[in-house]
Amino acid sequence: MTDRQIPRWSELKPLLRPKPLTLDPTERRLSKALTIADLRAIAKRRTPRSVFDYTDGAAEREISLGRARRLFAEMELRPSILRDVSDIDTGTTMLGKRSAQPFAFAPTGFTRMMNHEGESAVVRVADRAGIPYALSTMGTTSIEDVAAAAPNARKWFQLYVWKDRDSGEDLVKRAASAGYEALMLTVDVPVAGARLRDVRNGFTIPPSLTAKTVLDAASHPAWWMNLLTTKPLTFASLSSWDGTVAELLDKLFDPTMTIDDLAWLRSIWSGPLIVKGIQTAEDARRVVDAGADAIVLSNHGGRQLDRAPTPLRILPEVSKAVGDNAEVYLDTGIMSGADIVAALALGADACLVGRAYLYGLMAGGERGVQRSADILSAEIRRTMALLGVRQVSDLNPDHVRLPQ
What we know:
Keywords: Flavoprotein, FMN, Oxidoreductase. Its cofactor is FMN. There is one protein chain. The model has no long low-confidence stretch (mean pLDDT 92). The longest helix has 33 residues, at 355-387. The protein is of the alpha/beta class. It has an eight-stranded parallel β-sheet. It has a two-stranded antiparallel ribbon with strand order 1-12. Strands 2-3 form a two-stranded antiparallel ribbon. The chain contains 18 helices and twelve strands. It has a single domain (33-79, 89-394), classed as Alpha-Beta Barrel (TIM Barrel), CATH 3.20.20. Helix content is 44%, strand content 11%.
């Protein structure tokens, strides 16, 4: 028989640890986000459906994006035990300079639409995190304003080649004058992919005030208030557009571009050149032979050709094809630091993340982007320690097993 007694106050008092009251609603929201998936869930609640779907969605049946995320989820990490992991270094080298983390913030279009703080918030977080940030041609903050927002950040400029080559050349020259370190050419958008969520939502840039969106405003008043009371969305050389994103891309971008046009880019840009949108080993070799300093193995986050190759699956083949002739980065489907570690082990020099920080931006502005960076950084550090790895260069294919 168990003897029982009434607990004394002196015994109860040490057990009572009430959580401090957080008055700031943004801090309160973000403190509950332990993963990128948590940030995604918050973003979905706080953002109009059409805007969230633009960020979250992919092309056609979204098979490419689903495959990429499933492969990361189903891959197996293989630890090596009894290793000294008291001091973990998550830093690496990107384009000859140290990055504090093995990832960069990818270029994303229309970023101020997700949250009014937009690209300026993202580049400030990148600066604090010690990682590069790539500004998109379709960004909603100017090249110069992004540079002014974080003068010491590592800034790359992502270029789509326009039908109007003079306009593209002007953008490149402005990026050079503003101190951007590298030029990233995206090559997988000869025409726009079929992003069916946008079509079904009647999504335009900026979102139109229709009966449907006015009703939606009742559920997301803060987002609409910020949109309507801050500087209007503008990008590149356009001040407005009343069609879909796909129609805009088809109007602006040049489908006649070929590998020979890399020579034109080299004639107007003297810094490092990254080519984004590589999906085969053969194309990786072609663009490196044509002068690329780095490639991004990417299917555009599943937003272009559905059923495209899954970047993580073909990474070992591409890495072998490129060798030491160029750096290999990877994007698409990354939702955790463990995903990044797996890509590094299979041959990537670094990763680019896009949706991961956009979910944070939608969830809480600049503080949400910071939360996403902190989550990824902590997950990378923890995964490396559990694998028995002290530095990024120690990761190798033995640490990962992909499903057949």
